[in-house]
Amino acid sequence: MKLKMGTETQDEVNTRKGGLRTMPFIILNESFERIASYGSQTNLIIYLMTYYNMSAATGTSILGIWGALSSGLAIVGAIIADSYWGRFNAVAYGTIFTFIGMVILWLTSMIPQLTTLACSHFQHVCNGPTAFQLAVLFTSFAFTSIGAGFVRPCSIMFGADQLEQKGNPENKKIVESYFNWYYASTGIATMIAVTVIIYIQDRFGWQIGFGIPVILMVLSVSTFLIGSPLYIKVKTDTENLLLGLFQAGVAAFRKRKIHLPLTGCDDYYHSPYETEVLTPSKDFRFLNRACMIEDPERELNPDGSTSNPWNLCSVERVESLKALIRILPMWSAGFMMFVDMNVFAFSVLQTKTMDRHIFPHFEIPAASFSVFLIIALTIWITFYDRVFVPLLSKYTGRPRGLSPVTRMGIGLAVSCMSMALSAITESIRRKRAIAEGHEDDPHALVNMSAMWFVPQYALLGVAEAAHGVGQIEFFYTLLPKSMASIASAMYTVGTAVSSLIGSFLVSSEDWLTSRGGKTSWLASNINKGHLDYHYWILAFMSFLNLLYFLVVCRFYQTENDELPHVADEEECDYRLLHES
Description:
It is a multi-pass membrane protein. The chain contains 18 helices and eight strands. The protein is mostly helical. The protein is globular and about 85 Å long.
C-alpha cells in the first residue's frame, strides 16, 4: 500500500532519499561513538584501581554492572524509537547523552577533588573514594549508558532502513551484506580505540586520554546531523509496542476457557490499520484467544476498533508476541558467549605483568591486546562474506552461506575453546611468576611474552563474529518489521544479562574463595590468586551452554536454510515446532 504525500507517493520520496549515499554519515557516527566509548572503557579497570583505590574484583564487578546497564537500556531505547521518537531521533539524542557522559568522565581526570589520592605499595590501608566522588563517576556512567541504550539498537537498523527497496530483487542480499560490513566497520573502530586511544592514555595520561574521546563525540554528533536531509525516516508505530505485547498476553489469559476453532479466521479481530489480513499461526495456539471476537457489540467500537485492548487484541499484535517468544530459547543460549567476553579486565592485569615488546623500543599497552580479537573478528567477517559465501553458493547452491543458527553454534563452540586455552595460559604464567620469586609482587614483570595471549583473543574474535552476526540476522528476519529495533536490542540486552551473570560470578567467587582468611582466586595480586581456576569454570559453563544450545536447536525446524523477513508476507522458516 502506498501512502500519499501531496502529489508524491512514499515510494517516490524514498527514491530521492536513503541509499548508499547515507552510509558514510551513519557508519561514521557509529564509528566515532564506538572509538570514544571503547577507548574510555577498555583501560578503565586501571583507572579505577589507581585513582579510586578499588580492588580488581570490585572494579570488575562495577564495570560489569555498568555494561549491563548500558546493554539493558537498549530494549528501552528500541521501544521508544519504534513507538515514539523514531530511529533518527533516538540515534541523535543517544549520541548527545554519550557526549555528556564523556565530558563528565574527562572532568574526573581534570579536577583532583573528584578522585582519591593514589595508594603507594607500602600502604596497607588506603583511603577509598567519597560518596561525592563516586556520585560524579556513576553519573558519567549513567549518561553513557543512556546514550548507548539509544544508539546501539537503533543505529544499525536505521542504516537498514536506508537500503530497504522492496521492488529490488537484490535488496535482501544488499541488506545482508550491509549487516556484515557494518559489524566489520565497528570492529575497525574498536581496533582504533584499543590501540591508539589506549596508547595515548598510557603515554600522555588520562587528561588527554579522556579528552580525545570528547572531541570524537563532537564529530559523531555533527556527522550524523549533517546527513539528516538525506535520510529515510520511517514512521513510528504510535502504539506502545511493549504494552501491546503485554495486553495480548493478558487478553489470552482472560479468554483461556473459550474454545479455539481449528480453521477459519472470521472470528479473529484485525486492526483497521493493518496493511494485510493475517491468519493466526498454529504454534502457541493458546495465544490466539487474545484476538478471538466473542461478542462484537461489546468488544468492538462503531468504527471497528477494539473497545478494550486488555480483552481483545489484533492478530498482528498476537503474532508479534509469538515472534518474540520464538526467539527466546535461542536468545538465552547466547548468554554464556558474552560472559566469556567479559574477561578483559582480568586480562589487562595479566598482560601488564608480561613482556609486551614487539620492537626493542615499543611495547603494546596492556589494554590494547584486545585488538587481536578485533583483527580476528574483522578477518573472519571479510573472509566469510567475500570468500566462503561465494564458494558455498557455487558448489552447494546455498546463496547465503551457512544458516544463522549454524554460525551461532560455531561461535559458542569456539568461545568454549578460548576459555580452556585462557586457563592453560594463565596456569603457565602464574607458575613462572612464582618460580621467579614474584609471588608477593603483582607489578613485577614475568619473563614470558604476552604474545601467549594472542591465540585466545583471536578465538574470541572468531566466536563473536560468527555468533554475533548470526544472532542479529536470526532476530531481524524472525521479528516483524515494526519490531526491527527490538531485533537489535535483543542482542544488546543479551549482553546486559551476560554482564550481570559475569558480575555475580566474579563477586561470588571472590567471596567464597576468600572465606576463612584465604587468598581469593580473583585477588588484585594475581600471582597469589588463581585466575586459571576462574577460566576453567567459564570453560565448563560454556561447554554446558553448548549442550543447551544443541537441545534448543531440536525445537526449531529449518526449510532450505532460508530466513525471509516477516514483513515479506512469507512464513518464517525458523519457528518452534507446532503444539501437539
